[in-house]
Amino acid sequence: MNPNNYYFQLGITAEELSTLQEAFQLYDTKQNGHISVEQFSHILQEVGIVKPGNNAQELQHIIQSADINHDKVIDFNEFVLAMFRYMPHNNTSQQQQQINYNTQPQQAFSEKHTTDEELLACFQFFDQDHDGRISQKELEQVMIRFDTHLTPKELKEMMITADINRDGFIDFEEFKQLLPPL
């Protein structure tokens, strides 16, 4: 499966993906497929995700969550997922404006509902046999598609961290807990 299909399932348009590719290529001057953590930090500050000098803990948290394979660099797939996760989206910002002007519970629910739908689309991409849970094999297959070179030990550690109820699988609730709130 083409990773672009995954991006489109998340709601990233072709135009947004193209913009992200251009931004990534500006920093990937050696064209080696990744950027340094320092470059990524600079991008996060440039686009206003993290205010310069304000919150080192927040910056470190975003970097750690973005570096999926823990190789101390950010590849394009990690970059796209991080930007999707932390950049404000048009539909979310419109909902946020509505909530700011009119704080009815239904609107607050619809914002959470959209977030859950986005997470569910992401979860379903990992859940390849559509049984409502992610096995270690499914996790491994997705990581291979994204060209993240995780060792078997690293994959096992990911599963152990995510599998809160220790049933050998990651269900949707466990998956949601892995990710910080949007």
UniProtKB/TrEMBL annotation:
Keywords for the protein's UniProt record, in alphabetical order: Calcium, Repeat
Molecular-function GO terms, alphabetical: calcium ion binding
Coiled coil segments of this chain: none
Matches recorded under Pfam families: EF-hand_7 (PF13499)
Residue ranges of every copy of the EF-hand domain listed in the record: 15-50, 54-89, 114-149, 150-182
SMART domains (UniProt xref): EFh (SM00054)
Superkingdom assignment: Eukaryota
Transmembrane portions of the chain: none
Presence of the UniProt keyword Calcium in the record: yes
InterPro entries for the chain: Centrin_CML-like, EF-hand-dom_pair, EF_Hand_1_Ca_BS, EF_hand_dom
Record PANTHER family: CALCIUM BINDING PROTEIN (PTHR23050)
Entry protein name: EF-hand domain-containing protein
Organism: Parasitella parasitica
